[in-house]
């Protein structure tokens, strides 16, 4: 007969240790932070040792907690794999791919039917979020945008993104002088990325183009990239946009790229957990994503 602490207390500890936060563990388990704290206190009393050090707005594992955490994490991962395998025997298997809202809307959703054609019998679920998703629990594979530095994950580069001014041909933008009277459309990348040397912002593009006469801060700002794309499609101004996200409109002539100059920016990367490398869902998603994006970025029209 096994002598184990209550399962609820072990789940609370594992979630809090993985997320370094009682609050985030509570959100994951759909309970209150007080309930998490109570469960962990009971577990500490049962084991006769402290598992966490409480610090400002966070928690840190003690030596005993650090010893217990990987055992429970790997155990719960094994439970999840076992449950998933049983479920897949009785229902059509599903694969969850997560990426940014803009990339899902502009690049994945239009290609979704191709997944079923390539992997009959599988169901694809696209999770559109700008938050980082747990690839051991909440999704199978991610396409992430950034430098490619994702410690502890399996990372496969897909393609580097390029940004350039694009607009409706009705605006008649043909020269740098035309930009002075045009409305510039901005996507607010946030402080961390905005000041990065590779940030695709108007200030960097105008400097590279030698257009000192254009006010880099003028125009309309959006906190969601997809809204910046929509405003540009609506003819509201000139957007400094990802050429990958508007490739279809450039090919169709709905948008034009008036200038050859494009900024090299961060890249898109296929990311998955090494602990799930043999999972069928991970494998079918890797196969599909690499077939769609592994050779080259989405086709782009030449500058007009």
TrEMBL record:
Which branch of life, at top level? Bacteria
Q: Name one GO biological process term.
A: DNA-templated transcription
Q: Which InterPro entries does its entry note?
A: LysR-type_TF_proteobact-type, LysR_HTH_N, LysR_subst-bd, WH-like_DNA-bd_sf, WH_DNA-bd_sf
Question: What are the record keywords, sorted?
Answer: DNA-binding, Transcription, Transcription regulation
Q: Which Gene3D superfamilies match?
A: Periplasmic binding protein-like II, Winged helix-like DNA-binding domain superfamily/Winged helix DNA-binding domain
| Pfam families referenced in this protein's UniProt entry, alphabetically | HTH_1, LysR_substrate
The keyword Manganese is assigned to this record: no
State the family it belongs to: Belongs to the LysR transcriptional regulatory family.
Q: What is this protein called?
A: LysR family transcriptional regulator
**Species:** Zemynaea arenosa
| Source taxonomy | Bacteria, Pseudomonadati, Pseudomonadota, Betaproteobacteria, Burkholderiales
